[in-house]
């Protein structure tokens, strides 16, 4: 009998400088700006201090392009948390 529950695992990290988050088979990614410096995702989605953003898809759909995180120069703490979800 097949389980009705999805199985998933996660990875997390923190971006502290302009960088890319690599696509590695994840189906979801959650981002939260923990610093005081505004950031941008893929150079067009704003991520202000305290704000969060998520890309979320169903099991079987994976994100296949890296995400760029770029910080603007108006703050002193550059810190964006990311959490990736991988469905099994």
What features would you highlight for this structure?
four-stranded antiparallel sheet; Jelly Rolls; 88 residues; mainly beta
Kindly describe this structure.
The chain has strands at 8-15, 19-21, 28-33, 39-41, 45-47, 52-56, 67-71, 80-87. The strands form 2 sheets. It has a 4-stranded antiparallel beta sheet, with no helix packed on it. It has a 4-stranded antiparallel beta sheet with strand order 2-7-4-5, with no helix packed on it. The protein is 0% helix and 47% strand. The chain has no helices and 8 strands. The protein has 88 residues and is mainly β. Strand 4 and strand 5 form a beta hairpin.
What is the number of independent domains? 1
Low-confidence stretches: none
Provide the spatial order of strands within the biggest beta sheet: 1-8-3-6
CATH fold call:
Jelly Rolls
Mean pLDDT across all amino acids: 92
Helical stretch count? 0
- Count of extended strands: 8
Structural class: mainly beta
Q: What's the story with the biggest beta sheet?
A: 4 strands, antiparallel
Helix amount: under 10%
H/E series, N to C? EEEEEEEE
- From the coordinates shown, what is the CATH architecture? Sandwich
Q: What spatial form do the alpha-carbon principal axes imply?
A: elongated
Any idea what the radius of gyration is?
14 Å
Strand content: over 45%
Distance between the termini: 17 Å
CATH class: Mainly Beta
């Amino acid at each position: 009998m097949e389980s009705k529950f999805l199985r998933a695992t996660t990875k997390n990290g923190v971006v502290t400088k302009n960088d890319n988050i690599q696509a590695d088979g994840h189906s979801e990614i959650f981002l939260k700006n923990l610093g005081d410096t505004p950031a941008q995702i893929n150079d067009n989605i704003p991520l202000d201090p305290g704000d969060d953003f998520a890309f979320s898809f169903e099991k079987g759909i994976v994100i296949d392009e890296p995400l760029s995180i770029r910080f603007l120069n108006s703050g002193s703490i550059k810190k964006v948390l990311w959490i990736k979800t991988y469905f099994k």
